[in-house]
Structure formats: C-alpha cells, structure tokens
Design a protein that fits this description.
The longest helix is centred in the last third of the chain and has 28 residues. β2 and β3 form a beta hairpin. This protein has a 4-stranded antiparallel β-sheet. A 3-stranded antiparallel β-sheet has the order 1-3-2. The chain contains 12 helices and 7 strands. α1 runs parallel beside α11, α6 runs antiparallel to α7 and α9 crosses α12.
C-alpha cells in the first residue's frame, strides 16, 4: 500500500476493514475485470500475491480457487511444483454475460416491449418452479402475477438459456409482449415498485457513492501502481455486488433522480483514474514468467462509456 501516513492508505485500510471482501467473490471479480482481458491465466502464487494486500490470506484463497475449479469457473494445469489457473469456457461465458450489467448498464430508451415467462399450472414440480424463479429473479425478471415473470428489455434468449440450464426447455412459455394500457388497462410498468425492490437498490447505490466518492479527490495525486490496483479491485468488487442484483430497468421506468446513474458515473471516473497504473501492477505480477498472459484486449477501452482521451 501507500505510505502508512497517506490519506489514500488510511482510506483503503478503512474501506477493507469496514467491508472485508470474501475470497471467492473477490476472485470472481478479479477474473472478470482484470484477468479475462489478458487471456485469463495466472500462476497461483501470483494470484496470492495480488490479493494479499486486500486481506485475503493464502489458505482462504487456495480454498476459493479449488471451489472455483470444482464449479468449472477455472481449470488448472500443473507445471512441476507450480499451478497455473485458467478461466474456463463456462467462466468466460459468465463474465461476458455480467459485463453488460457492470460496464454498460440499462438502456436509456425503451420501445415498450416485454419478455414474459409463463409457467403452466401443470408440468412443473415445486422444486423446479422454485429453482426457475430464483434464476429468473437473478436475471432481473420480476413476478407480476403467480407463475408470470416479466422483464422490459432482457432478450428472450436469456430466458431460453435459463430453461436449458435447468433441463426444462419445454416446461415454460417464453413470450414477447406489449401491454395495451392505452385502452384503459393497467400498464405493466406501473408495477415496477411491487415487482422489484427499487428502494433497497437505490439505497445501495447511494451508499456506494458515499463510500467511493471521496476517492476522486484523493486520486488527484497519481497513486502508485500497487495502490491503484487495490482501488480498482475494491471499486469493481463493490460495484459488481450491487449491479448484478439490479434488474437493469430501462431509463423511462426509473425515477428522474435515480441514484444508480450518479453511482455509475462515479464508478466510471474512478475506474479510469486508476486504470493505467493498475495495469502496470497487474503486468508486473500476473505477466511475469507467464506465456499465457496476453496483451490487453482492445474492447476494454469501451467500458463505462469509453476511456477518456
């Protein structure tokens, strides 16, 4: 970290102490944000060294890595006494899917169409229905009536993917719809506060802005690469935990003063403030003696609206 007396060091120490990251979740954040754009391979020893300053000890990290291998997020290769870990194809699919929510966000415009998933009254057991509901809610769908889930912009393919994953591709209806509230009916959008917990989500965004907003001034003095890396990992880890539970409703369905907009702007500004220095630290550790470590993917420059000139 920085000089123990520096304001940045005190800020980071307090941030980690007040919200200590969990090893496995932090690994996933690091894999998607920093390692996947470089090919997704890292020596276990270098991963341990990268995350030690964030309070992750070696034992916890090894356990988390083994679990990620068991869940097919990672694959391992033995090279003598060393272990190289690589993001699996499944892990790459997961990170690519999450990237839209993390770096792009919900659409500002909306054509009024909905994707609906309807569960017939017969043909699905209680366990199947409960598991499908969990998956749909995680994807951002809201339940507008018993057995009927809706999302205003998620593509039908996402619903079909969930049904395939659960092994029940023919047990639910996936529909595209447009409500006819103009004829006097109830607009689906008016149910937003009932279908999605927007109040709790709004408070999480406000807390994010409160926690990380002060960093912008602290970073006016360019941080050392190691400190920039810590900022980047903690920033994205905290952001990811909120935004992956955000249903990503389109702009017209959200209040004008929706705090998610301001939080995303803060996150993007800080991300790019520390990006280049954090990459230097990542290159120095993850890139050493690692032939699988690739140059940074060009499309990363489009994150959070684009890298400032």
């Amino acid at each position: 970290m920085a000089n123990p007396q520096s304001p940045l060091d005190r800020f980071l120490s307090r941030l980690i102490k007040n919200d200590p990251p969990r090893a496995k979740s932090l690994c996933v954040s690091l894999l998607g944000d920093a390692l996947a754009p470089h090919g997704g391979a890292i020596w276990l020893g270098d991963l341990i060294e990268l995350l030690a300053p964030l309070g992750i000890n070696e034992r916890l990290l090894r356990t988390s890595v083994f679990r990620l291998v068991a869940q097919n997020w990672l694959q391992s290769e033995r090279h003598g006494r060393r272990s190289l870990y690589l993001i699996s194809e499944q892990g790459l699919r997961h990170t690519a899917h999450a990237s839209q929510r993390i770096y792009v966000g919900p659409p500002l415009e909306w054509n009024g169409e909905w994707t609906l998933v309807a569960l017939p009254r017969t043909g699905n057991g209680l366990a199947e229905r409960a598991e499908l509901r969990r998956e749909l809610v995680w994807e951002g769908f809201g339940m507008i009536a018993p057995g009927l889930f809706a999302h205003p912009h998620t593509e039908a393919s996402a619903a079909h993917d969930i049904l395939e994953k659960l092994g029940i591709p023919d047990r639910a209806l996936v529909l595209s719809a447009r409500d006819l509230a103009g004829a006097g009916g109830l607009p689906i959008a008016s149910l937003a506060s009932q279908c999605w917990n927007l109040d709790e989500l709004a408070e999480q965004y406000r807390q994010f802005a409160k926690n990380f907003g002060p960093l912008e001034k602290l970073l006016e003095t360019p941080p050392a690469p190691a400190d920039a890396f810590i900022v980047r990992v903690m920033l994205l880890h905290s952001w990811r935990r909120i935004v992956l539970h955000d249903p990503q409703l389109p702009g017209p369905m959200l209040p004008d003063d929706w705090p998610g907009h301001a939080a995303r702007e803060i996150c993007g500004r800080i991300y790019w403030q520390v990006f280049d220095a954090s990459e230097a630290h990542l290159d120095a550790l993850a890139g050493r003696d690692n032939e699988r470590y690739a140059p940074l993917a060009a499309d990363i420059a489009s994150r959070f609206g684009g890298k400032p000139a």
